[in-house]
C-alpha cells in the first residue's frame, strides 16, 4: 500500500483518494484515449502532488517508462508504479498521543525548512525596517517545531451562522444580549421616548 498518512490528513480513505486521482486522470486525458503522453503526465503528476492525497514516487515511474521505452502511461500503470518498487513510498509515521490527547505528528509544512515558502516584499533601501531585516531571513530546520499542539480549527465554526432564507454564510459577530438599562430614544419626537 502507499502511505496512508497523507490520506488521513486529507480526511479520505485510500479508495476515495484513488477515485479522485482517476477523475483527474480523465480530466487531463482530454482526447479520451485512455492514456497520457509524457507532457500530460508531467502536468498530471504536478496536480496530484498539489492535491497531496497519495504519495507519488516519480523516480520509479520514470524508471519503468524508460525500461519499457514507453511514450505513454495508462491509469492502471500509474497506480501500480506510483507507489514505488516495493509497493510503498515511505513508512506511515507512528502517531503517539500524550496524556492530554495531543498528537505527535507535525504538519508537512514544518517537516522540511527548505520547502518553506515566504513572500518577501522588496523595500526601498533607504527606508528598510528592522522587522523587514528579521523577516527576510529564511527559517532553518532548527526554527521548525518538533512538536505540534495545534488544533483542527473546529472552534471557528461557532462563529458561523446560517440565517433563514439566505444562502450565504454569515459570521456571527458578538452582540450584547443582556438587560438594557439605558433610555430608548425615539427617532421621531421626544414625546415618544420610552422611559421606565
TrEMBL record:
Compartments, as annotated in UniProt: Cell projection, Cilium; Cytoplasm, Cytoskeleton
InterPro entries: EF-hand-dom_pair (IPR011992), EF_hand_dom (IPR002048), PIRC1/2 (IPR026507)
Molecular function GO terms recorded: calcium ion binding
Main location: other
Gene Ontology biological-process entries: axoneme assembly
Coiled coil: none
UniProt entry keywords in alphabetical sequence: Cell projection, Cytoplasm, Cytoskeleton
Record's GO cellular component terms: axonemal microtubule
Superkingdom of origin organism: Eukaryota
Chain ranges of the EF-hand domain: 16-51
Protein name per the record: EF-hand domain-containing protein
Amino acid at each position: 500500500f502507499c502511505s496512508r498518512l497523507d490520506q488521513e490528513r486529507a480526511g479520505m480513505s485510500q479508495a476515495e483518494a484513488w477515485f479522485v486521482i482517476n477523475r483527474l486522470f480523465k480530466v487531463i486525458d482530454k482526447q479520451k484515449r485512455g492514456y497520457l503522453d509524457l507532457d500530460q503526465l508531467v502536468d498530471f503528476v504536478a496536480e496530484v502532488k498539489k492535491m497531496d492525497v497519495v504519495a507519488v514516487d516519480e523516480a520509479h515511474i520514470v524508471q519503468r517508462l524508460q525500461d519499457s521505452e514507453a511514450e505513454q502511461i495508462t491509469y492502471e500503470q500509474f497506480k501500480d508504479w506510483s507507489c514505488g518498487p516495493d509497493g510503498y513510498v515511505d513508512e506511515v509515521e507512528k502517531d503517539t498521543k500524550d496524556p492530554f490527547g495531543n498528537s505527535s505528528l507535525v504538519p508537512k509544512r514544518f517537516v522540511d525548512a527548505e520547502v518553506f515558502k515566504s513572500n518577501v516584499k522588496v523595500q526601498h533601501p533607504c527606508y528598510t525596517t528592522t522587522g523587514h531585516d528579521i523577516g527576510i531571513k529564511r527559517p532553518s530546520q532548527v526554527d521548525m517545531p518538533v512538536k505540534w499542539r495545534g488544533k483542527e480549527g473546529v472552534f471557528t465554526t461557532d462563529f458561523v451562522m446560517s440565517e433563514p432564507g439566505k444562502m450565504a454564510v454569515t459570521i456571527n459577530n458578538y452582540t450584547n444580549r443582556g438587560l438594557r438599562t439605558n433610555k430608548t430614544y425615539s427617532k421621531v419626537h421626544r414625546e415618544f421616548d420610552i422611559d421606565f
